[in-house]
Every structure is written in structure tokens, then in C-alpha cells.
Amino acid sequence: MVAREGSADLPPAYAPDADMLEAGRRLFAQEPRFMLGCVAMEQLPEPGVPEVAFAGRSNVGKSSLVNALTGRKTLARTSNTPGRTREINFFDLDGRLRLIDMPGYGFAKAPKTAVEGWTELIRDYIRGRATLRLVCLLIDARHGPKPSDEGLMALMDQAGVAYQPVLTKSDKPKAGELAKIDRKMSEAVAKRAAAAPRAITTSAVKGWGVDDLRARLGELALPG
Ligand code: GDP
To answer: Helices marked H in the chain — which ranges?
Structure first.
């Protein structure tokens, strides 16, 4: 169960019905197939299938959440292979949806040029990919959005790419803290054109919000 409490002045939480939840569950019951990892725009696979990308600061819990979504270790294991972490990794889900694992950003210890390189690739991909339907913007539920997240939001607004804020590790903060961050996140996107108005709150450890996120992504998939 995930807390759906809010207050009158907050946008309503995403609340899929039973059919949407079932459609999401079925889609994510399929084995994701690793397609390829790209370090440059020229390497991107042929477009055609809707794409959903996962983006966030390093250590935000991206691998854990993607694993929880797919119920497998496949995705994280592949993306954690040395040399793959700077790539944009493409996974095919039943030929109906592609999951795109983006490199984490805001990692101060990486050499500056490497950081710039990832940012450039992320920028190019977000600006130039017609089949990119949604970016799941992962934000740590203890901290809320940071300047690097705001930078990505601005880019997505400019590019007109829809994004869904997703709070991760929501088992960590106390209920009051979580409510505060949820509100802060809504305030951060209130004036942003391309953002969903309310975050989906998740915990990969507890499994909270995972069904909701599957339903949300299932809405974007080609019909089964
Ligand atoms: P990534 O770098 O964004 O892929 O992050 P990881 O998935 O590797 O997670 C970073 C750290 O946060 C690891 O120590 C995870 O065990 C921890 N973590 C990830 N998701 C959760 C969660 O939902 N709850 C808690 N408590 N810890 C989490």
C-alpha cells in the first residue's frame, strides 16, 4: 500500500483503476530484453516503439526501482557492468514498450569531462527523440529535487518531453517528512509545462507504488 493522503490544495495522486493495474502487471510480467547500450546519438536503435526513460541523480535508487518494476535483476546487472554505466541502455518489453536506463547525473567524483559527456548525451537524446513518450524523473523522497534535477526539468520543458516525478526510497522518511517532500515536488513542477502535477511515491524495498508506476507506463505501451 502506498499513502495517497494529501490535502485539498495538492493535485490528486495518480490512481489507476483495476484494469490499468492489470494491464501494467501483464506488460511487466514479460522478460525485458537488453537491446543495446549507446554512448552516442548515432548508435540509437531505430525508433518505432514508444520509449520511457528513467533519469535521476546517481544513487537515487534507479536500479532498485527498475528491478522492482520488472521483478528481475536483469536490468541493473547489465547496467552495472563496468563500462555500461555511462551508456544509455535500451531494453525491449514485449515489442510494445522500451525502457531506457539513463546514466545517473550529479556524481561529483566522476571526471568532469565524463560528467559533461553524459549530460550532453542525455540532452541530445531528450531533445531529439520523437518516440520518447515519458521520462520518469526519480527524486529521493528524503531530499526532494536538487539543482541538477531542476536543470533536467528545464530541458524537458523546453523540449516538450513529458515527465513523471517519482519519489524513491519513501520507506526512509517519516510520514510527515514524506508529505513535505511530496508537496515540495508538486510546487517545483506547478509552473512546469511538461510535468505530471504530482509525484508517484515508491519504495523498491517495500514494493510501494510499483504497481501504480507499472500502470502508468502500461498506458504508453502499444496494444498487446
Ligand atoms: P542508482 O545508483 O540510482 O541505480 O541506485 P541504487 O538502486 O543502486 O540504490 C542506491 C542505494 O539506495 C542502495 O544502497 C540501495 O540499497 C538503496 N535503495 C534503493 N532503493 C531503496 C528503497 O526503496 N528503500 C531504501 N531504504 N533503500 C533503497
So the answer is: 18-28, 62-70, 74-80, 112-128, 147-159, 175-189, 210-218
Write out the chain's pLDDT in tens, 224 residues. 444 555 667 999 999 999 999 999 999 999 999 999 998 899 999 999 999 999 999 899 999 999 999 988 756 544 455 444 678 999 999 999 999 999 888 766 666 666 666 778 889 999 999 999 999 999 999 999 999 999 999 999 999 999 999 999 999 999 999 999 999 999 999 999 999 999 999 999 999 999 999 999 999 999 98
Tell me the three cell numbers of residue 118.
Answer: 553524459
Ligand 1 atom 9, closest CA? 61
Closest among 15, 38, 19, 35 to 27, alpha carbons compared: 19
- Alpha carbon dihedral 11, 17, 19, 22, in 10-degree steps, equals 80
- With 0.90 as the threshold, say if the pTM is over it: yes
Residue 128 CA, ligand 1 centroid: distance in Å: 30
